[in-house]
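Summary for the lay section of the report: proteins are chains of building blocks that fold into shapes. Here we show the chain for Pentatricopeptide repeat-containing protein and then a coded description of the shape we predicted for it.
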Amino acid sequence: MFLARRPSGLSNISRLCILHTVSWILSSRRARFSGGSDDATASSLCRLSDLFRPVRMDISRVILRALESGTCSESVELERLDVELDPFVVNLVVRGLSDSETAVRFYWWAESRPGFDHSQFAIAYIVSLLFVDGNFALLSEFLGTVRSQGVALHRSLYRILLSGYVRAGKFDSVIETFDEMVMSGCREFGIDYNRYIGVLIKNCCFDLVEKYYGMALSKGFCLTPFTYSRWISALCQSNSFELVEELLVDMDRFGCSPDIWACNIYIDYLCKQNRLHDALEMVEKMRGKGTSPDVVTYTTVVGCLCNNKRFSEAVGLWEEMVKMGLKPDVVACGALIFGLCKNSKVEEAFELASRMLSLNIELNVSIYNALISGFWRAGSIDKAYTIISFMRTNGCEPDVVTYNILLNHYCTIGMIEKAEKLITKMETSGVNPDRYSYNQLLKGLCKTHQLDKAFAFVSDHMEVGGFCDIVSCNILIDAFCKAKKDTLI
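The coded shape description reads as follows.
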């Protein structure tokens, strides 16, 4: 920081400074030779910097009043003040201004004073004010002039510029400013690369991320676990997985590991690609590096195990989750029960649901529906009815899916009267039947050769309600064709 050169003459403010100095010396001597206590003496003495601060504050207030008065041109008003400038005073003035254009004009006026040089602080204050005002045209002009004077920007000023451009969404300016900082020769730190690469990751500029990541490594910097984790997460979410394994190797080399968020996203990707072995291996690595799997981790892997019909391992992993003190949520419970029911293991699913209830885990209607459907497909009709009664007892009301399961059963076995009553019950109880509901009843009517009733149901009920679709037409056409064929035979 350069200080202003002292002018030959004394201004009114300079005389005030001398008077203040003499007063300060006399008061200090009186305090030193008084008969007071040591504490009193110590508190009476002040630091040398306090000698100049009040005068500088007075000067800055005088200048601010002149700038805010607006009685005549700013330069004329400032010339009349006859004040001595130093960087501290200028910084105080700039910090006290709320208008960026006024601050820039004052900066250039101070610059024109003989022998005066600004500090980096004044530039930083003005740049910050320009960002607050969103005056990017003036910011560009101001920085261009400063650079043309050969002023080398400090690292802290580059950080202010980068932060301001990021908040303003000026991504091209962010890249340009960072490149300029690197080329300027000012000292960079790992934190600069981490922040910058974080911005590139957020904007999915993975080619640039690789470029600057290589630069950071070449200078001996590595990313923080947080930045690595955000990069891995973004790569997985953008279906750009080629680099993920390389980054995990780099993290091992630097002794860090991704956070649970990144781990879960990566494991989800592996499971969707049916790379179950790699997913299980990643879970083991998490344990080894102190990142404990959470409910999301277990749920994802359990679902993949069920899809691969490895049910004993899925149940074992679920039990491990419970033993670790993690309370499975409905998604975690549903993944396992749905998988078991889908693969005709409804008894195991029912036992697991009972275990969940013993752990005070509230089952939702989707889980109950899976059990009801599973028992129906298995021919255990009584158990299906028991589940329906049980879910009502537990405060879980049947939804349209539950009723559709019942409708499907009634229509399949030819209990059309019960199916019709169930449709009526749905319509009066607030559970609106859907197209599937009506098509099931239509199919039941056709199956029991009640074609006239089926046709009337379509024309008087389904078409009026907007439920008739291509499936309905096909059911009716197929039934009439079969009836015609039977007549011919």
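Put simply, here is one thing we learned. Residues 12-33 form the longest helix (22 residues).
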